[in-house]
Predict the 3D structure of the following.
Amino acid sequence: MEETLLQATIYLGAMLIAVPISVRFGLGSVLGYLLAGIAIGPVLGLVGGSETEHLQHYAEFGVVLMLFLIGLELDPRALWEMRKRLLGLGGSQIALSILVLAGGAALLNLATPLAFAIGITLALSSTAIVLTTLTEKDLMRTPGGRGAFSVLLTQDIAVIPALAFLPLLATASAVRFNEDGSIARLAEDDHHSMSLVEGLPAWGVTLVTLAAVVGVILAGRYLSPLIFRIIHATRLRELFTVAALVIVVGIAVLMLLVGLSPALGAFLAGVVLANSEFKHELEADIEPFKGLLLGLFFITVGAGINFGTFFSMPFLILGLTIAVMALKGLILYAIARVSRLHGRDRWLFTLSLAQAGEFGFVLVAFGVQQAVFPDRIAEILLLIVALSMLFTPLSFILYEKISARLNEGGEDAPGHDEIDDEAPIIIAGIGRFGQVVNRMVRAAGFKAVVLDSNLETIRLMRRFGLKSFFGDPTRPELLKAAGINTAKVLVVAVDGKASAVSLVRYAKRHNPDISVVARAHDQLHVYELYEAGADHIVREIFDSALRAGRYVLEDMGLSDYEAHETEIAFYRHDRHNLRELAEVWKPGVPVTENKAYMTRARELTDNLESAMAQVFSEMGDESADPTVRASGDVSALSGVDMARRPGGTKRR
């Protein structure tokens, strides 16, 4: 018991120390977890050996939970619409990677069956690292991010035939090593499992497997809603968590019993439950476990790196790792060109998937059991997989450098629509937010040029007869073609925070008189947009929260007039606070480390209650006639007007 608690303290303590430091320096959480594992494992020797390997089996369940959550975000119809990308991008990447990597292994004088086994093992990428990093950096909704997700999903499916095919590549009977170093062959009865398909003929395996998949779909469709309604009636919050874990763990066990990937089964269950009324409850219950187990998985990867083998042949192993990533990168780049991914999306697709993945550990271990990989080759393969995963966060840093250079130089690759129209209003980003703005502008009789990098959204707009152009709204040549130098208003509604700030800064630099209306994701993003020169900043959920708060006040007995006046007063106070805090905010410095910001924030928070009390006092002195309109600036409720700095000076 004491040893278990000590190990838990070491792992959790390493997380708390390494990850914040890594994130603080812009390296991402994944690299922090990997470095923490290296520190407590090979470097300090605090953990390691069989304990780490045993713990890794539990930590791998984080990948299962992650795919379940991803499935919850996908409507089955959306998955069906992805079939071309799954077969095109994913299928071609797997097939070409296996052939090229197997050919490279054959050039090193390895036997053909062993070379193909190596190609299969290294062809798969890291679902855990790539999806975690794409989500952290807000890249999942980009064309490159969606392409990478399609490939990763195809790879997860491909693990099933890979496990079935590997034993056919065995060059000898399976063996094991005794404690004295002697070799003992495994007898047929040495292996026991709870498999539901072991010993069945091929048609029996197929039937059982299909029955398991159909059972998961039917249970998710008809049984789970009934179970959740019963749990909801108990009003015991913890039972939702128990039910969520039982669903995921149970499906994972069922998939293992029929020889399928538990990650694939969890993803399938998530897709089935994507339209469930309890979807958000499931997400809230699973998310903490997913994050903790994924972090633990990355730490065990770092702790399990065998530096003894590495230092015995460092240049060979590093060279092989770089060669694997380079070959996969070339294949991915070629696929991206054929698939018409352009510029930053092409580089994101290429650099994010060039590594080997966590399923490589599973395939190597399985290959050793089946006498596919000799022990020495297996050790080298494990090091290549681990090192390539360790290099992946650096690949994302390289992507950001390339992306910034393409953006600054306007050198993004072609592939956009030719813009043959100009208007006094430019709307950059036509998602849910931009669509509302566009409809209102058109209804008022004004003309706008609409730009968006999501081709599917653009096609949808055109089906409704709304003219719009496909292309990256942050690209200088597209903005110039749309008339940025003469336009009166620019609406910035792009998804990425950094892209929005860059677009505002570019627009103000080339047309200082243009009025920029920008959507902010949160309060810190408001400061960044303010510093870049935005004239009007709208927090994407602020207005809806204001309206919801007003409804709450009305339901509590306030008159329409009183609730409206309170809404106006709160808005004005919040806008004043934002202006005050924007002056002491420092780019790149966390607000908790900015003493001036924290001091001013506390003062403004303390002033809120007294300011609102004064509003109620003034309302008591005035007529409560509901026909009296509020004296507040109603139009300002459309957002945060940052057009003037404190003191009244116009921002330029």
